[in-house]
Design brief:
globular
Length: 156
């Protein structure tokens, strides 16, 4: 399935809300998707984005690790359905939005947490999602710079 479609599915699932376990599962799903997209970009994306993409995959992986919450259902993770990235810019724009949604959901969970362990894992996951979103922004900036350089090369 196309990355943008999977991202939209994740954003809708996060927006639907639900109980904390459901939200944590959706956060986990979103982080797994960000990791898969980062890994795919690191292997086959534009060469000038590969370093940032590796960082994105690592940060999303950290976000998964601190939550330590596999999906509740026994099916495969949503990220396993990723077959193509499609347009890199569109993929990154949507992924940045998803990571913002993840941060917002985690803030809500952290504020309502009954125990310190949940609170601190949410804080760490918020940091990971925020840093991953920064990587996405950096990649979008590099894409824009690369596109701006093309007309200059063609004109020169």
């Amino acid at each position: 399935m196309d990355a943008v479609r999977l991202i939209v599915t994740s954003r809708r699932a996060l927006a639907a809300g639900g109980e904390v376990p459901d939200l944590l599962t959706e956060v986990w799903q979103a982080q797994a998707l960000a990791q898969a997209i980062g890994s795919r970009l690191a292997l086959a994306g534009p060469p000038h984005l590969r370093g940032e993409a590796t960082g994105l995959a690592d940060l999303a992986g950290h976000g998964i690790g601190v939550l330590d919450r596999a999906p509740l259902d026994s099916g495969e993770p949503r990220a396993a359905r990723l077959t193509e990235l499609g347009d890199t810019r569109a993929c990154l724009m949507h992924l940045g939005g998803l990571l913002g949604d993840v941060g917002i959901a985690l803030v809500g969970i952290a504020c309502a947490a009954d125990d310190e362990a949940t609170y601190w894992s949410c804080v760490e996951a918020i940091d990971a999602a925020d840093e991953a979103r920064d990587r996405v922004r950096d990649m979008l900036r590099k894409l824009a710079e690369g596109e701006a350089a093309l007309p200059r090369r063609e004109a020169g």
